[in-house]
Amino acid sequence: MFSRIMQDKISPQIAAAVCSILYAFWVAPVVAAKSPKDSVKQSQDETKGSKEDLKPKTMQEELQSASPAQRKQLEFMIGMQLHQLMYPGLEDLGRAVQMFQKDLGAEPTGDLSEGQLDELFIRVGKQCVPDIIFQTPFHSSDIDFIKRNGFATVRGTAVLLDDNDSIACPINTFDITCHRAERYCELRETYLVVMPKTHGGYTWAFDERTALFDIISWSDDTIEAIDREDEPRVRTSSLSLNFKTKEFFWITKNSGNDTELLTGKKIERLKKPRIAQFVKGDKIVSDYFKKLKDDAQSFLSSEFRKKMEGLMQEK
User: Fold this and answer.
1) Which domains does the chain have, with CATH numbers?
2) Which long-range contacts (CB under 8 A, 24 or more apart) does 23-29 make?
3) Rounded to an integer, what distance in angstroms lies between the CA atom of residue 153 and that of residue 186?
4) Could you please report the per-residue DSSP string of 83-144?
5) What does the pLDDT look like over 126-154, one tens digit per residue?
């Protein structure tokens, strides 16, 4: 069981090492032929053993059934995981396990349960927050925009105005370019998809998509445009750009169709128009990653965090 847990919860490199370490331990040895009576007894013992194998085993039970060399290697791997959370896993594994259990609010038995082992790997996985710089073209103004000589551009991060709703990808940047003579606007969206893994950590992916909007109004201060519908859709969107007030909106409404013909799937209708505003987004990006890192630090050893807080308070 412990080997399966290790494969599911830690890096492929460590999982491969565990498999190689435990291979001889899990493979049954070849035995000589036995009499029918012995075979019956062996079958009964195997049945009994198989039922016992179904019972969850603690880390301590797994270690006790391993050879001294295997036990030492497995303990070292658990110690490395605790060490990443600033517990003394490589110096004093027993004490590190007890400290970890206390931080979980559990009895410090020194014997990790399967659930506690799961939580250990989750907390270690959440420490992997890379320093990603999301390129934003913002300068000193509230939002980047230009409108002159029949050309306009707006660059910003889209945020929903309704506090009860949240944009699918909060880390995004939109680049809108409008051409008066050709009577269209192009919206290019680049966004970072952050997907939490089941057992801790994150998967990161960048994506990009574009959309075209037909200009229906162009004045000295404003541009209004509606998206092109090559196929009937359940929802339709429009751009409302005001260069005088520096307010730029992306509005999505129900179109009146019940089914998205392009995909053949029904899409839930909006209860009210969804309004996203384009704003300066550098602080949004930095705040988002700060939250991820703050969450990761909250899983570090409480003793370590207290020491760090003490050092920060020293003058």
Assistant:
1) 2-125 (no CATH), 144-288 (2.40.160)
2) 25/66, 25/67, 25/70
3) 9
4) HHTTS-TTT-HHHHHHHHHHHTTS---S---HHHHHHHHHHHHTT------------SSSSE
5) 888 877 766 655 554 567 888 999 999 99
